[in-house]
Automatic annotation (TrEMBL):
Keywords (A to Z) from UniProt: Hydrolase, Metal-binding
Lineage: Bacteria, Pseudomonadati, Bacteroidota, Bacteroidia, Bacteroidales
Name by which UniProt lists this protein: HIRAN domain-containing protein
Domain of life: Bacteria
Residue intervals of the HIRAN domain: 31-125
Length: 129
């Protein structure tokens, strides 16, 4: 499935909250781009509480943060209203440029594990076209 184009369901379209041409109800497809380990989870003060609600298949919003003091190409992952981390810096350049050009993205959690004090969350990143 990761290498196929597929239609988006209504819940995902609501998550993306698109407007413009997309408000016409034109069909959308999700395009698999990459798999990541969410970076920076250990810097989220309440990550254990947030992670207790995250399961395989949970959807993550992706928010571009061009004014991030550490990385001008930063893209944050949000679960509901909580930031849980970022796309790793070495993998965010192309996605950030596409986001800056108006492309829409989201991520789907593929796994979650706890190693000592670290919550490891893995996700697949998709572009919506």
């Amino acid at each position: 499935m990761a290498n196929e184009l597929s239609r988006l369901d209504d819940n995902l379209v609501a998550l993306l909250a698109t407007g413009g041409v997309n408000s016409l109800g034109l069909p959308k497809q999700k395009i698999y781009l990459l798999s990541v380990v969410v970076a920076g989870t250990s810097f989220v003060p309440n990550i254990e509480e947030i992670a207790s609600h995250i399961d395989k298949g949970s959807l993550l919003r992706m928010v571009r943060q061009p004014k991030n003091e550490y990385d001008e190409y930063a893209i944050a992952f949000f679960y509901e209203q909580d930031r849980i981390g970022y796309i790793p810096e070495m993998m965010n350049l192309v996605v950030s440029r596409l986001m800056d050009a108006g492309k829409e993205f989201y991520a789907e959690v593929t796994g979650k594990a706890k190693y000592n004090n670290w919550i490891k969350i893995t996700a697949d990143v998709f572009m919506v076209e």
